[in-house]
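Review form for a predicted model. The reviewer records the input and the model, then writes brief findings.
Reviewer: anonymous (R2)
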Amino acid sequence: NVGDSAHLLPDLRTSRIRSVHANGSDATSAVAGQRAALNIHNIDAGSISRGSWITGESQTQLTRCVDVSIRIPATESKAMKHWTPVHVHAGSAVTTARVALYGGHTIPTGGRGYAQLRLDTPLHLVFGDRFVLRNQSATKTIAGGRVLDPVSQSSRTFRKNRLPFLQSLDCAESTEAMKQRLSMQADGVLVDVFTLAHNLKLSSVERLISEHSCKVYVDNQGHQRAFPTEHIANFTDSLTKAISHFHKHQPQAGGMEANELQQILSEQKDYSVVMFEIVLQSLISAARIERIGSRIRQYGYRPQLTLDQQKLLDRISQWITDKELKPPAVAQLAESLEMERTELLTQLEPLVHSGHLVRISANRVFHPMAIESLANIARQLDKGSTTSSHGFDAKTFRDHSGIGRNITIDVLEYFDSIGMTRRFQDKRKIVLS
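Model under review:
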């Protein structure tokens, strides 16, 4: 429509429609199937290259890796080999690429197969788009195909078990594609990615989600993910049963270590770290379970201490509180309690095992809520990181927590050990929040 926003791809420029010609006459709008000309504000025709798109939505999806199905004509004299150099014709765009085959080293003449196109120039592609492949010299058409996933990845690890997923996506409509993605993606369907990949309005995707009996959750990075309600219910049941079983067999413990609980649940068919985190947070929000430091337990569960253990904990609580982010070292604590260091370490063990205290290193223990406060600082730094590599470094964590360098290193290495963070060179990313 005249006056609408216009987004030019792949340049990612935004403008508006000044006027429209449709079927040779002035018009206020144009629709699919009409021969139309658009007068676009502040974009010169000479700056638009062959293969550009004008869209009404601010879609910025450009891709260099696209998963496709390919058909080789029976009249073709040669099979398609892995890593064949080709020219890709999609829409009016042309670019060179390599064909990385899934599930074999060739596609025979007259046959079909699945591949990843590694494009030399980014293209704007969506699910279902058709394309033509020509040979390296662009003198002969050698194959045709259809886009299945326009936002793929290039790593070998990602490609290893990709074939069954692509076979399931080789369907005609977005409705069936949503069904297949839901059944095979344990970490849920990213709503915004699906919306762009299938060239749909958000309202249409929301309708698909509802039709497939799904529920949408927000992950710890702020992305909406759709999961089948049945999968969430089954996983929730397994998680709560695992915690109940732990309390029954270890009543003196203060809860399960998060990574231990994760390991037990990882044997499930529909397990993923993303689902684990989403279900965990959902149960915490519903006050069915609680997280104390690195331990997960039923809401309100309190392990019983002996009288002597309780007395020691009361004495320790003068120096180690839920607000103290720089507790004394064990040697200092022993001196304050007028105890031998080795004796104190022995008596601290049941308090750590019960979850009343958290040992982050051989020489330092924390109140579990103080550890949770430090974990929240790490989560906020990770969520707010804007650098190209993302994550946060030890100095940034030290400055925001105010706990000093030595304790910072102990705390971050503890977070690494329980699987909450993962170190990449000098930075850390939240893995299990």
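Findings: The CA atoms of residues 130 and 146 lie 5 Å apart.
Further findings: Residues 229-249 form the longest helix (21 residues).
Recommendation: see findings above.
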